[in-house]
Amino acid sequence: AVKSEPIVQSDETVLPFLGKRMYTWAFNCPSFVVYAIGTRSGEMLAKVLGKLFRGIIGCDCYTVYFSYAKDKAMVVLQLCMAHLKRDFEYFAGYDLSRPDIVRFGNRGVTLVGNICHVHNELERLRESGEESSDRYRELQAELVRLKGELVAHAAAPPEGCRRAKAIAKRFAKYGHYYFTFMDYPGVQPTNNGAELAIRAKPVPSRRNSLGSKSCRATSTWRPSGPSRRR
What are the residues whose beta carbons fall under 8 Å from the beta carbon of 30, sequence distance 6 or more? Predict the structure, then answer.
């Protein structure tokens, strides 16, 4: 069923198994969640989503997503804005001896927060049938302005900060994937749904069982409780 979904959010977490690092994946769809156990390689995406998947994948910046989407014209990524905000929060809490890095972080946090806020307002208006209103058009223009500011901000990292330069490099290559939600109504700017699915089922089960201890346990493991939403 997940292979035919137009929007899928994905995340993974470690699952200890016989001294090896296996992973539990969560594929969050609008009405259900699919869990899978395996390695952390791109083979899991091909196995669950298939080679002919056509849709949008909400995800973090793990490289397997870029590799999966690279040669698929009908696959689009939505990089998680919440993860980007955490990146900027790291700089906001940086050593005060580098106020330029702190400012870089604070400004980034503000911009990402404002973008998500405007998006939520647009979604509220869209769901209430107010897409033709002046307020809707004003918010759309504001979102475009904020996007331009964030792109410019990410492209100007503080001198001597390699972690900030990594963000600039990421934006130069994949920055457009942060704003997929602007072109596709209903797409969320984060993959929080998949993260919540991970925290709700696999993580508590992993803590309770201390990981799978046998091949049979891995093949029969299921998250406790229903995974299909009602």
Answer: 5, 7
